[in-house]
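Deliverable D5.2: sample structural annotation.
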Amino acid sequence: MSSATEHAGEVTHAPKIRGLGDLSKLSLAALGVVYGDIGTSPLYSLRECFSGEHRVEPTPANVLGIVSLVFWSLTLVIVVKYMTFVMRADNHGEGGILALLALLKPRGRAKETWSVHVYVMLGLFGAALLYGDGVITPAISVLSAVEGLGAGGASGFLASKPFIVALTLVILIMLFLAQRRGTAGVGVVFGPTMLVWLVSIGILGLSWIIKHPRVLVAIWPTYALDFFLEHGYHGFLILGAVVLCITGGEALYADMGHFGRKPIRTAWFFAVYPALILCYFGQGALILERGKVDNPFFDMVSGAWRYPLVAIATLATIVASQALISGAFSLTQQAVQLGYWPRMTIKHTSGTAEGQIYVPEINTGLMLACSALVLALQESSKLAAAYGIAVTGTMSITSLLFYGVARRWGWGRFWTMLLVSCFLVIDLSFFTANVNKISEGGWFPLAVGVGIFTLMTTWHTGRAKLGEFIRASTLPINVFLDDLAQTKPYRVKGTAIFMTSNPEGAPPAMLHHFKHNKVLHEQVVLLSIQTWHVPEITTSGRIERIVDLGQGIYQVVAAYGFMQTANVIELLEQCRGAGLETNTADSTFFLGRETLLITDRRGMAKWRKALFSFLSRNARPANAFFSIPSNRVIELGTQIEL
């Protein structure tokens, strides 16, 4: 069998760019999906440096030092690390942690080495941390925007904390309830909304820079170094707030497959980067003039101008939240297909855009967690304490995985290690500065990450144990065929389709059916669906092979990418075009259902066996996951001792 990288049906996920018009459209769309999180960071990043738990006084030297740190964080992490190097690592156009894992997986039938296993564990934990990020981002983004109603000493009902919290909850709940309709309609306005937002914050920042052009000297890195020399360890802890300016940086890489490198880079250098720099320097200029301020972002305007700014900020944070929610859906689909997550309900919300999906279970979980966070903390400043751990942890893991991929490309060990070490110095500095936030709320994303990681590894290990049992109880297909030739059992009319994970053997469900019913259908199809470590496989390349084994038995092997969902009925239609005629209306699907018995056998801890059993019982039924009509399914049970 060919490896995934040699598969004829692979597709490059990134869209093709045929001219300046395509580049402009894709760059505008990238603004709405890729840059929502990092684009709304000015709402709270600089504020936390001067009003957070480890704040510094707003002296001119401190202001210039903080602004310099923000500028160089954006430049070194986003421009140098992600734009220049990490985005080179794509899996047929697709980016993100799971794409990096796919690039590190052994090719063909090669065994997984110890180093690759370590990479897999790191990658899974990084993916798990993204769920924690997906919970916090909508909560802190929307709440920080709505808090603009109470900025600048505003009073009254609209500025009261109960109203701000209630309005935030209403917006978040409406956002999550709207997910089932898909993002196709709303997505049209995502890009223009973010463009209006970026232009607005850029103009605001520029207006204050003109008043105090002195702030521009913060471009020199010496101001950041002087800040560290002046404040020592306290200055290092400020990185825990500075890191908020690069939250969402991982999305640049994770969403690469939707738009491609060029549109993402174009949007960054022509719109996002200039707007962010102008806004942060403008906030710095404001603080230079006024000294201590409650909210540097919203204090850049005054009077009635604050209300339209709050409105556009709220819209921008909804866009940012949508990107993280959609990312959680995509991450779940990939994890399910790669065998690291139980089968879940995956609904496609668009007939043309395959990547637009809705996962009800994940959506409900995110909605409840976000709402609980807002109710419990009620202030974006308190949420900021929980932010940063997940982001910096994921960024550090991405650097480590990039080292493995670069070495696989053939890059020299010394230069690759030197480059990745520079990345890690920055990543781990941010991560270490956030460690002190664990007791203040940083435990939450870590707890989410550890919980999701435990579920993913438990499910994968449990399925591997089940696979060993099934392989041990699977009869070689040639032995079964020889037995059929000798016994010549009675054949009933119609087609029987047996789903099997091992295309080379007779599936246990078929053996049980034959043993107890003493008959077989006239036509038997052994259908095996494989998931390759590529994002998508074209329809024409989906059927791996169709083999006539004789005696009316056919072997069918089909392949899907890890960002696709299998549909058995569509596969059978494709088989007709490849020469295998089946009557769907007269077909019966036979599926195995395992009943797990927990024992004291070695291999898995007993609590993990109990967890795997619980997940298995509550996973989505195979017939629903593979889009098989439930009235044509027969399930045959098997008891398996774990």
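Annotation notes: The radius of gyration is 27 Å. Residues 1-9 have pLDDT under 50 and may be disordered.
The annotation will be released with the project's public dataset once the embargo ends.
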